[in-house]
Amino acid sequence: MAGTISSSIFRRIPARLLRLEYERRLREQFVDLNDLFMLQCFMELVGLPNPAAIYLLDVYPFFLEEFHTWHRRMGMDRSPIGSMPCC
């Protein structure tokens, strides 16, 4: 019985270490994304130009496709942006 207990403990150690590493990486990514979000909010607050705006032009066609699904999911019957008709 002692052999089975110790062998099961040793089998769980690598899985636990992998899970801890995975959780650590997720936390790091969360902190990075949170920092980026805070920077974007601060820049919007003080009126600084958004350096990511040029990259958004590449994503804009995909955004238009997803916008209708998003505003419907948020409970809005019509587009909240008057200049962006989608309904």
Description of the structure:
By secondary structure, the protein is mostly helical. The chain folds into two domains: about 1-50; about 50-85, no CATH class. The protein has helices at about 1-45, 55-75. The chain is elongated. It starts with a helix and ends in a 14-residue tail after the last helix.
Helix/strand structural class: mainly alpha
Domain module tally: 2
Number of helices: 2
Please state the oligomeric state of the protein chains shown. single chain
- Mass-distribution shape: elongated
**Major sheet:** none
**Amount of helix:** over 70%
Helix and strand run: HH
Task: Lay out the secondary structure.
Blueprint (H helix, E strand, L loop, with lengths): L1 H45 L6 H21 L14
List keywords for this structure.
87 residues
Short description:
With 87 residues, the chain is mainly alpha-helical. It contains 2 helices and no strands.
